[in-house]
Amino acid sequence: MRWTSLATLVAPAQAALRFGCSTVSIQRLDPVVEPGSIPSAHLHQIVGGNAFNASMNGDIGNQGTCTTAYWTAVMFFKHENGSYKKVPIMPNAALPNGINGGMTVYYTQKDFNNNGNQKITAFKPGFRMTVGSPTTSSLDQAKGHAGLRFVCLSDKNTRFPELPDFPTKPCKGGIMTVHHFPSCWDGKNLDSPDHQSHMYSTTKEAFAEAGPCPSTHPVRMPQLAYETLWDTAQFANMWPKDGKNPFVLSFGDEHGYGTHADYMFGWKGDSLQKAMDDKCMFNACENGKPLKSQNVAAMNACAAKKTVTENIDGWMDKLPGMNM
Ligand SMILES: *[C@@H]1O[C@H](CO)[C@@H](O)[C@H](O)[C@H]1NC(C)=O
Ligand SMILES: *[C@@H]1O[C@H](CO)[C@@H](O)[C@H](O)[C@H]1NC(C)=O
């Protein structure tokens, strides 16, 4: 998704942004955790940047027409017979019609309903981070990541309860994965060796107001969050007889404890800072107030080059890149 700001606006209060981003690619690439690896270890769905490739260095704001990149693992269904099939992604209800899969991206300040009154510092050119880890392997650890949750959907508007792991029964409206990133910055580093320690999480569940930033990470940045809606309907009549959850994340995680997400900042110029300095909420930030957004057709036309060519559709014996 591309945003450009109008040069004019500086207002005292702060904005909350929410927009849809269509899928630009589903392939095994990960320029933050495994730069240069073609393919990376596991499959990702990528939204945002059409300049997305295996090694994106520095300021990506001027590479490609759709810039910032957002990515997560992909969900698969595991049949009782051992075969896997990728779960399709569906668009969110609160967004314009016709978006091709993708995710909903939020840049909020305080909580869901209030855009707050504190200074929010936009991410800087070259900034990147991850949240969660594929190596998280226990329910207790997963519970500790308040921003990483699953929701069993009755319909596209269901938001509660938030679960630390996969739902254990069929969900009529699909499954939503939620990734809230940390929003307190150390004020110095655009990245860190583990892609996380330059940031500190004060996130609480379900867009509740975050706690204050600690002195080690004093700079409040936008609360970035992704929602992805997985359309599990076609698998409802294949639920395993033993009642076990049949869904698995693309790195082989059958519980969802290791759910994680990546972010690479690429807004043009100071457009994100301008938006954060405004007081608009969600759709009211569009149409030049202060942001201009792409229409759905332009967004769907954004695609990243396929550099890893392997079959990821239909029934498969193994997860792409995995020995399972
Ligand atoms: C990725 O794209 C950048 C420019 O956008 C280019 O400099 C780099 O060579 C590309 N890398 C790969 C592996 O394609
Ligand atoms: C498993 O079941 C699916 C759905 O019926 C089928 O398409 C697939 O070929 C089966 N795989 C094996 C290994 O039998």
UniProtKB/TrEMBL annotation:
Alphabetized UniProt keyword annotations: Signal
> Which positions carry the signal peptide feature in this UniProt record?
1-15
Q: InterPro entries, alphabetically? A: DUF1996 (IPR018535)
Q: Where is the DUF1996 domain?
A: 30-267
The name of this protein is: DUF1996 domain-containing protein
Superkingdom in the source lineage: Eukaryota
